[in-house]
Amino acid sequence: MVLLTELPPEILQHVLGFVDPPDLAWIPRICKSFYHTVAGNTSLFRAVYLNNFDNPTDRSAVNWEQDLKNAVRLQIICRRENVEDKKNDLPFVYDTVTALLRNAATDTDRVKSTTHPSSLNADLLSAIFKQETNQSAFLRRSFIYERARGECSIDNQVEAARREDHQKSAHLHCLYGVPVLYAHSESHRTRRSRMSPFACSKVYDIRQYTENTMWGPFMDDDTGRVDWEKVEAIMVVIGSNLRKLGLTKFPVCRNFWEMPFAGTWPHSYKPIPIPTSHEPGPLDLQDPYGVTGMWLRVVCFLDYTDFFAYNFNSAENPPPRHIPRPAIDVGEATRLILMKLRVTKIEPPGPEDGQALPVVFFEGISRSLDNSFDENANSDLRGSVRLTPEGEVRWTTFSVFSGVERWRSENVQVGGVRSAKGVLGNWFDKDYDPRGPVGPTAFWKVSDKVTESTSYRALTHDFLPLIQGHFDEAPDEYDPEQSDDDEGDDDEPGLELEITGISWVTWTED
């Protein structure tokens, strides 16, 4: 019998290329022959990496040996039983998770008609963060979660708000993509630990909207850097409202809001070809962001009486700016909107933009899916997409009524260029009215299909078959336990939204 160590080097390397990544840590300790085969063997580490993870688009950006070792260490850290034993590794976990997503690649053979992407890297991360202790150690570390747990006193709030691990935890949570709606683990769920009121206190606080932040989810330092704690709060508010309404049962929402790491990496959006007479134009082919197509949008807002009372009733003795307003738990409106966008112009980036990609301008129309008439819902659209100086994708939209801009939004695309996860941001008066109103918004792409119709009626007629396709896919693994027990009452009053025989409540009262 021929011993493994007696095989030709190329055969031995081929065999070792199929071992589990953790095994490469102890195989060199068996004997000198294995040690010399493994140590510094870049091609072997590349083979093991590609047999267990996605084939990255840019291989030059991958350090095969170090990235493989980091992935193994990530799994070892996350297998520890206690939160306290792993929470100090947040910086390493953050760097490794973002690297795995940066190098993720969509498996086109596993893309469903809902454009929900699949990836080996994302599958690994989903399995890791399914554990409650990992969520507590790495996803529930931002300031609003500390507030909900009572871990931040008034004296140290300023210092805590500036901590880098707050931003890293919030960013990881946004990449995870499923809003964690309780401050404590599942075994400690109580109404008191619900995160929605604390997220609302950040989203609806008019003091968060300043010239330095461009009234969007950016740092209040005029740098254009993304404030991931703001993005996280937006995700929690919208995700909570979608669950209240039962919309996450349907793949059109569920595949983007209930699936961990669902397309939170660059170029994860992969549309299913749909027969259409429309051919991509020259501008579409030059557009790196994938603007042209159909998008589904969610907009949430408070009744203005509640908004005004929350922000201005204590005008005589307002809290210091660094002190957050109290948690707010009142009814919110949720509106679903269809958007059809088309590229109109492409220009080089300006001096304050990221220089890697151009600025893309677009126009379109939006149509509310709510049966009730609302003059604020149906409008023309215009806007732009560009990179921030740090390389994040920034979307700006304007809602136009009778040729006049009225509402504006500033948004960030979670996951990068052409991510399937979509865009999260803030909407507000285009003139930056200091009295508001303001609120959260999100939109994600569901089809590249573009028709020539311009009327609202034609837009809905063209779009609904695509939505119906999403509904026809039964939610195979939908777990009703996943919905918030405290927030999903069937008898809540509201406006009904009719789509292909399905009623959606668009106003909820707690």
Give a short summary of the structure.
By secondary structure, this protein is α+β, with helices and mostly antiparallel strands. It has two domains: 4-52, no CATH class; 101-313 and 325-475 and 490-510, no CATH class. 31% of the residues lie in helices and 18% in strands.
Give the overall silhouette.
Answer: globular
Average pLDDT confidence is: 83
Low-confidence stretches: 468-510
The amount of beta strand, in percent, is: 15-25%
Largest sheet: 8 strands, antiparallel, barrel
Portion of residues in helices?
Answer: 25-40%
Number of helices: 16
Q: How many domains, as an integer?
A: 2
Taking the alpha carbons of the first and last residues, their distance comes to 74 Å
Q: Numbering strands along the chain, what is their spatial order in the largest sheet?
A: 1-2-3-4-5-6-7-8
Give the SSE order as H and E letters: HHHHHHHHHHHHHHEHEEEEEEEHEEE
Structural class by sheet pairing and helices: alpha+beta
Count all strands and give the number: 11
C-alpha-based Rg, rounded: 24 Å
